[in-house]
Amino acid sequence: MNARLVRCRYRRRNDEMCTGEAVDPDGEVLLCGKHLARALQLVQIHMASTRP
Question: How many angstroms separate the CA atoms of 25 and 44, rounded?
Fold first, then answer.
């Protein structure tokens, strides 16, 4: 695990970067808990709308 703090990669509408700490600093997706939860909600909504 990295000793340095890895920040969330989410960029807000006003082009500011999120200042939250990434949930998994060694992962491919660098999101904080807030933005990771929102991404999972959007995936669940999409999956529910595409089921027959």
Answer: 24
